[in-house]
Task: structure prediction
Amino acid sequence: MNDVRENQAPEAIVEEEEINLLELLQVIVRRKRFIVRLCSAVAVVAVVYSLLLPNIYSATAKILPPQKESGGGLSALLGQAGALAGLAGGSFGLGGSADLYIGILKSRSVADAIIRKLDLAREFKTKSPDETRKALEGAVKIQAGKDGIITITADSRDPRRAAQLANAFVEELGRRSVELNLSRAGTERIFLEKRLDVVKGDLKRAEDDLKAFQERNKAFKVDAQATATIEGVARLKADIVAKEVQLASLKSYQTEENPEVRAVEAALAKLRGQMGAMTGDGRSGDGILSAGSVPSLGLQYVRLMREVKTQEAIFEQLTKQYEVAKLSEAKDSSSLQVLDEAVVPQQKSKPKRALIVILATVTTFFVAIFTVFLQEYFAKMGEEDRERWDEIKRQLAFFHSRSGSARG
Result:
């Protein structure tokens, strides 16, 4: 008997499930009028609503940020500038990162410039600058793809206005990038000019002192080994000064924790260690040879010669870097490349009226199905469940009445 029951149980379960499904279908068919009427009403409302929505046109512009220098031209000149080349590394463009240019495009200054240029406050009918900026932010979408290309998409009811708005962002980005490049290049040029004036004076004094010493001592000279050591110390001293200038320039706009600042500090410490090893004094690193390496009379000459060679090396590096800064400042165009200018769109981008009607109708259909099931459940509710439901309604009504009296 048990085996028979076990064999019949699955069939009974299947039959029961089929009956339940048929009951559900019966409920839907019995209340189909409600479902059809509700879906039809919502569909009509969605059609009317979508037809009342204004057409929106989208215009798109694409920009390629400047890529990093790969060699040749100005990059070759930078390479010849020695340790100071890092000063002007960013003067030939703000960099190849698309995020940097997106940040500029989304800045308040760019938004305000475009608002003034296109008189968007009147077009958006806003009452404050903040509202106008928010409206502009909602009308323009700026993003960068994996390929680094920046896409600017502007929406407007007027197709010509959409293209004008997208191109305005492109023009403003080009203008701002030029201003930032020239501003930084001008700052570096002025910085180097001041440093060059100091070095010129130091070099002239060093040459005059050496000339006076030679005249007093009948053109005194030291051996070739000492001369080579002097030149080596002078070059190393020039590298140290160059790194110090580079570090001072970096610290003017970077923090102590910046990786580039830390790298320059490490390189500077290494150069100072080499200076200490060459001079036999690891503490000072001032570039003065030990007294035992040259005759006593030649020590003064070594110091004077070292100063001349050092100032000459510093002057040479600063002069190269100064020319690089002047070339950078002379650039009068942005290195941005406009791949696609925004053109007047011929077709609307939104609203998608058919999609609105379909989504509204489908959503209403499922809501109607859920509603008829609830109606059927309440219609067939047992006496005990009905009492529970009435109790729930009384408690809810009591809660609302108490909250209303408390507010009163």
